[in-house]
Specification:
Elements: E1 7-10, E2 14-19, E3 31-36, H1 38-48, E4 53-56, E5 58-60, H2 63-74, E6 83-85, E7 91-97, E8 103-108, H3 124-127, E9 132-136, H4 137-142, H5 144-160, E10 163-167, H6 172-175, H7 180-183, H8 185-188, E11 193-197, H9 198-205, H10 210-216, E12 224-229, E13 232-237, E14 240-245, H11 257-270, H12 275-290, H13 302-309, H14 314-317
Parallel strand pairs: 1-4, 1-9, 2-7, 5-6, 9-10, 10-11, 11-12
Antiparallel strand pairs: 2-3, 7-8, 12-13, 13-14
Helix pairs in contact: 1-11, 11-12, 12-13
Keywords: Kinase, Transferase
Pfam family, one: PfkB
GO molecular function: kinase activity
Length: 319
């Protein structure tokens, strides 16, 4: 019998094609297949940190969908409410490494199984069964039906008293010219715990400094707003502003680092830690994630994250 879920999350899990050489995709001949997806990454990250977590989302009734489910089960993530769609594919995206290490991402998720999700097709009671419901702006940007279901889920969680964790996660390719402040802002304003990058804070609040967030927090629901960047992270609450510097590590791949950060912060919350301690664990998890290529490979175990916090290098933490 599994432990009661402490966190649930809903989103799109994807197959990620990572090129083994740099340059335009038309010149790349070999790829390594990984898995990813913001909410899926957070679920795996929380499980590796020792928490009971469930992920729900739309997958194609295809080989890639089966691969994602098998991987999740191997990571002890509950996927009993995943939706297999026989009429739509599992989402896919390609990474492209250009000159000077610039990363481009090419999505193939229009019409995917996840983009067809609707609120009336979800097990809402399951999604509200934990202490925290984690959502992102990525799923809300997939389609009109997905935007509606995220909005309805937030309302249901607010009414039930389930903490809503929301990572803005602006993806301009998915927004297709729509203003993220109009599409995602109203959703973010109803979250209890809001995560933003420095750039996203600037977009939503007019600046990425603590004072910008402090002023903006008066007009939103969130008791805690967390802003993270390359130099560290800070959180703004009624009690004050908490700041924590980043860990110094060798960066290999930054994709998925924000999800590792979120998993670390939520893990600290579940442990009953102070906000400063949550930020420190979040920074440690993000630092571990960037040292390994792939969206999921670098998500640390509890032992690895705690080792980095004790002063071991990220490369030594898993030895």
């Amino acid at each position: 019998m599994r432990d009661p879920l402490r966190v649930t999350t809903l989103g799109e899990a994807l197959v990620v094609m990572d090129p083994l050489s740099k340059g335009p995709l038309r010149h790349v001949g070999t790829f390594e297949k990984h898995l990813g997806g913001a909410e899926f990454n957070v679920a795996v990250g929380l499980s590796r940190l020792g928490h009971a977590v469930g992920w729900a989302g739309g997958l194609g009734d295809d080989e890639f969908g089966e691969e994602i489910l098998a991987f999740a089960r191997g990571e002890r993530v509950d996927v009993s409410r995943a939706i297999l769609d026989p009429d739509a594919p599992t989402g896919l995206y390609f990474k492209e490494w250009r000159a000077l290490g610039q990363l481009r991402v090419h999505y193939y998720r229009a019409g995917s199984a996840a983009s067809r999700m609707r609120f009336d097709g979800l097990d809402v009671e399951y999604l509200l069964s934990g202490e925290i419901l984690h959502l992102t702006g990525i799923t809300a940007a997939l389609s009109d039906s997905c935007h509606g279901l995220i909005s309805d889920l937030i309302s249901a969680a607010n009414e039930r008293g389930v903490t809503v964790s929301f990572d803005l996660n602006v993806r301009h390719q998915l927004l297709k010219g729509r203003d993220p402040r109009e599409v995602l802002g109203p959703l973010a304003a109803r979250a209890d715990l809001l995560f933003l990058s420095e750039d996203e804070s600037g977009l939503l609040f007019g600046g990425g400094e603590p004072e910008h967030v402090r002023k903006a927090r008066r007009d939103i629901r969130a008791a805690t707003v967390v802003v993270h960047g390359a130099e560290g992270a800070f959180a703004v609450e009624e009690e004050g502003i908490f700041e924590m510097p980043a860990y110094s590590v060798s960066v290999v791949d930054t994709v998925g680092a924000g999800d590792a950060f979120v998993a670390g912060f939520l893990s600290g919350r579940l442990r009953g830690w102070s906000t400063g301690e949550c930020l420190d664990l979040a920074n440690a998890c993000g630092a571990c994630a960037v040292t390994v290529p792939g969206d999921l490979k670098g998500l640390p175990t509890e032992e690895e994250a705690f080792a980095l916090r004790r002063g071991l290098g990220a490369q030594d933490a898993g030895r």
